[in-house]
Amino acid sequence: MKKGRIKIRDLHKSFIREKTNEDLAALENFNFTINAGEFISVVGASGCGKSTLLRMIAGLEKPTRGDILCDGKKVEGTSPDRGLVFQEHALFPWLTIRKNIAFALKSSGRYNDYAHTIDPLIEKVGLKEFANSYPHQLSGGMRQRAAVIRSLAVSPDVLLLDEPLGALDSFTRMVLQDEIIRLWKERENTMVMITHDVDEAVYLSTRIVVMSPRPGRITEIVPVPMPYPRNRGALEFSELRTRLLKTLNFAADVERAKGLEPSTSTLARWRSTR
Amino acid sequence: MSLLIIVQYLYVPNFREFTPLDQNAPTNTFVWFLGFFAALFLGWNIVSLFSSRASGMLKKRAPIFTAAFLLLLAYDWATLSTGMLPQPFVPWPDAILNAMIRDREILARSLYHSLRLLFTGYGIGVGLGVISGVAAGRSASIRYWIQPLVKVFGAIPAVTWLPIVIVLSGNIPGGLFGGAVLLIAVAVWYPITSTTMNGVLSVPKGTFEAASTFGVSKLGMIFKVAIPASSPFVFQGLTQGMSIACTALLVAELMGVEAGLGWYINWQRGWADFAGMYAAVVIIAVTFFIVNAVLSMIRNFVLRWKEGIS
């Protein structure tokens, strides 16, 4: 049986604001099951608790109530079975790209099993000439690639991606999206990605979770029934994008924008998302 | 440019022949000394003909070397040639070199004593400083206690404690030597602790979190993540600490410890042997220069991963 099934039950997370001692709910009543091998994207405005959700699945934060099961086992801390790619690569700057990956493998105790995969992985994402370079010598896109393969090298059942392409230019993003799909197809692991980019979500995922902010709740779960590789220009693609934007409450603004008159609600939302 | 140096070298020994022979009959030591460097340069020039790297290095350094030897020439002129500087308190290069040769054994022993004291104290201070710095960086409760300690006692120049150390030396294991080691260790401990702590605190949270997703052990977090990640800061402390340690070493030797180059200077002052005093000063300068150069070489090697370090 394939591994990497995540079951989230009645998840609730709140933070206590230090100044006012106020209880802030970041996530409420979150119930969701991710099947092994799925590619889930989580979209939603800033502050909807997406990152908190991902960090809890990774085991970096503890839920206030409820629990997360990974293949039937309760998540109680980090594990090499659940890899996490950060928005800001988080490569170790004092190690070369190859040594970064080797360090991840050694730390997870999987070096002997996967050491031979390091070089092929590096080559696959076009970093062959940079294997012995230090992170600061690489471009932003190359660093993010290295971070993705570093996390994939330990062969996690679940790979969590926290806006991994958020800081990149759109061209590099598209190239990396294809690479992520390729690696996922090859590994058949579970992917959970957070993104701000609706296009990216439609292009990559099998299902998209749309969340609403404060407190974070699931608004809608949208399946994406298109085969890979997907065509960004297809009608089906743009229809789905429009629908998602509507769910996220942006579609109405598109209509209003045609009248060249920004509504107060648009401005208010723009401010709140900044 | 390199030719210029050669020409200049040929002139410097010549210049010496014109100098009047006053009291302390000058010997040929200085000529030999200059001749040695002239030969070195000649050799370097020959190598430069074949190696563009050596030639580049020579071209880059030629002006500063020229200036250094011009300065030496001016010094020789101001002392031996004209006696412009008050004699006999400012001996000329030849006399200083001769003092070095005459007292080479005792100077070597003094140098050994100084270095032993320096590195024992420095080593202990660095070791303890890195431990406490990492601990304070990782744990807020340890930081709570260490931070004020560093702030209050770190502000006091370490040599302030010297008279106390001398008074207490009877009760300190190792006597005065032990006391001086303690003094240097404490002096070095402050900057190392505070830079290491700041270094660990400045490591992005994501670095530790990423490490924890790979299952890095608790010990690994310290030795394989926290320390390498904060090493640029640690080296900043190492450099600061070395300069403080050198100061503390000399003050300790000048004031109490009965061995080492500092002690030698004092001892020669007692005999009114000014050349000897200057000889020790030159040796101290050269030694500290070498120590710092080695430290910065180590630093450049360890921090080769860092942007902006060659």
Number of strands of chain A: 10
Beta percentage of chain B is under 5%
- What average pLDDT do the residues of chain A reach? 84
Query: What is the helix/strand order of chain B?
Result: HHHHHHHHHHHH
Largest sheet: spatial strand order of chain A = 6-7-8-3-9-10
What's the tally of helices of chain A?
Answer: 10
Distance between the termini of chain A: 43 Å
Shape category of chain A: globular
Shape of chain B: flat
Encode the helix/strand succession of chain A as letters.
EEEHEEEHHHHEHEHEEHHH
Known CATH architecture of the largest domain in chain B: Orthogonal Bundle
> What name does CATH use for the topology of chain A?
Rossmann fold
Helical content of chain B (DSSP H or I, runs of 4+): over 70%
Question: Could you explain how this protein is built, in words?
Answer:
- The complex is a heterodimer of chains A (274) and B (310).
- By secondary structure, chain A is of the alpha/beta class.
- Chain A has one domain: P-loop containing nucleotide triphosphate hydrolases (Rossmann fold).
- Chain A is built from ten helices and ten strands.
- In chain A, the strands form two sheets. A six-stranded mixed beta sheet of chain A has the order 6-7-8-3-9-10, sandwiched between helices. A four-stranded antiparallel beta sheet of chain A has the order 2-1-4-5, with helices on one face.
- In chain A, α2 (97-107) packs parallel to α5.
- Chain A is globular and about 45 Å long.
- Chain B is an all-alpha fold.
- Chain B has two domains: 2-99, no CATH class; 104-302, Orthogonal Bundle (MetI-like fold), CATH 1.10.3720.10.
- Helices cover 81% and strands 0% of the residues of chain B.
- Chain B contains twelve helices and no strands.
- Chain B has helices at 2-18, 29-50, 52-81, 93-102, 104-138, 140-154, 162-168, 175-202, 205-213, 218-255, 261-270, 274-302.
- The longest helix of chain B has 38 residues, at 218-255.
- Chain B is flat and about 70 Å long.
- Mean pLDDT of chain B is 83; it is low at 13-23.
- The interface between A and B is medium-sized, with 27 and 22 residues.
